[in-house]
Amino acid sequence: MARWHSCNVLHTAPDGQQLWQFQTAGAGLRLAHQERTMANVVLPAKLALKDWQTLYQPKLNIACLSPEKLFLRVVQLPAADFNEARSMIELQLEKLSPVPVMQAVWSFELLPKKDGTLRTAILVVAARTDVEEFLGKIEGVGFLADRLEIPFLDQLLATKITANGVWVYPGVSPDPQACLVAWWYDGILHSLAYLHVPEEPEAGPYLRQQIAQMAWAGELEGWLTPPPRWHLVAPPELAATWAPWLRAEGEAVETVPPLTAAEVAALTAKRAISPEPRDNLLPPEFAARYRQQFIDRIWMRGLGAMLMLVLVGTVAYLASLQVLRFQVNTVEKEFLAKGVLYTNASKIKAEVQVLQDQVDLQFAALECWKAVATSLPEELTLNVMNFQKGRALLVSGNGPAGSGPRAYDYNEALRKAAYKEEPLFNKILTPDIRDNPGQGMIWTLNAELKRNVAD
């Protein structure tokens, strides 16, 4: 599932069409949107069509085929993988298909493997003309399918088989008089058929007669052993009509609620995007054409967007160029008009700055002298105070032997010296203390005046 980002499932009917959009969520799917419209109404392009986002968020479009134009056949094959099963079915296709092979499209669904040497497959055959007609119809509403699926297979596989017998599924196609009949024995699907029953009062006898013929065929083939139990998979409104048709001579009919249309669509999407290999009823030439249309659409939209971007950029560039030219001309005129005034103002500003620097340096020197004098411990003697370029301060002196800690205290006191509630010095280096035998010790402090104090 990691490959696909979203999956659209389209179901069409004479009275309308419905589109479900699912998005992958972890190991499952979540319903992101559903759209129901009248028949032959163009679907929203944002939902149905693929755009450039599909390049990094792949979308799978699935169209659902109704079973009334399909031929379904259960085939028992030797236990094999997908490719081997396909080869075996292809070898028997001329015998199994009611339509000439050259005029048909076909696919198959491998059922989960059971104990034994055989594996069940459901063969699906459709006339190519019917498939092409259906594809033309959904193309008209703006839906280009990547896969053609039969949702009934998901309803069939989701049904819990609790006993041997026959399972009747009415309502699987737009025809209200149609149903699908499945025969399960020992957990194995043996037969699957699509039936159309006439109107009342012939509906019940005809349906029971057709099921009886299937039962006789099963007895001849050897898989129908005990009498079958009857199961009707239908909603209450259909069960009320079909259950009496199935009852004969007091036989019980067990009614099973079917999945909703949205649940079946979710199972169809999950089956289609699973990593297991699967056949597809979509003819290869249609898949290739849809792919080419998608590529052409991306190219044309990309070229159109680039052309529009170039046009917008060119217009913006020319407009900006004109604005900049106007601004440059205006600035040049103002510069020429105010050149003399600017020169005089710059000269006066420089002179004022020089005077201000002199005043600031005087105050800075006084503040430094004040800090040096007031913070000097009694044990130490100040010999040198050098104020260099208004930035650096060098203080040196001597003291008795063993007064090194007082030099460190002096260093810390200068570090805390303040002017206008701001530190006076930006950085004070660790004092340099040297012992002078017979004369005590010599200490030296270097400090950097804080810039805003000097300025």
Architecture overview:
This protein is α+β, with helices and mostly antiparallel strands and 455 residues long. The chain folds into two domains: 6-282, no CATH class; 362-454, 2-Layer Sandwich (Gyrase A, domain 2), CATH 3.30.1360.100. It has ten helices and 20 strands. It has helices spanning 45-48, 82-96, 128-140, 152-158, 203-221, 236-246, 261-273, 284-375, 404-415, 451-454; strands at residues 6-13, 16-25, 28-37, 59-64, 70-78, 104-110, 118-127, 147-149, 165-170, 178-185, 188-196, 229-233, 253-256, 381-388, 392-399, 418-419, 422-423, 425-428, 432-436, 440-449. A five-stranded mixed sheet has the order 3-2-1-4-8, with helices on one face. Strands 11-10-9-12-13 form a five-stranded mixed sheet, covered by helices on one side. Strand 2 and strand 3 form a beta hairpin. Helix 4 (152-158) crosses helix 7 and helix 5 (203-221) packs across helix 6.
Reconstruct the topology from this structure:
Elements: E1 6-13, E2 16-25, E3 28-37, H1 45-48, E4 59-64, E5 70-78, H2 82-96, E6 104-110, E7 118-127, H3 128-140, E8 147-149, H4 152-158, E9 165-170, E10 178-185, E11 188-196, H5 203-221, E12 229-233, H6 236-246, E13 253-256, H7 261-273, H8 284-375, E14 381-388, E15 392-399, H9 404-415, E16 418-419, E17 422-423, E18 425-428, E19 432-436, E20 440-449, H10 451-454
Parallel strand pairs: 1-4, 4-8, 9-12, 12-13
Antiparallel strand pairs: 1-2, 2-3, 5-7, 6-7, 9-10, 10-11, 14-15, 15-20, 16-17, 18-20, 19-20
Helix pairs in contact: 4-7, 5-6
Number of domains in the coordinates? 2
Helix content: 40-55%
Tell how many strands the DSSP assignment holds.
Answer: 20
Q: Please trace the helix and strand order, writing H or E for each element.
A: EEEHEEHEEHEHEEEHEHEHHEEHEEEEEH
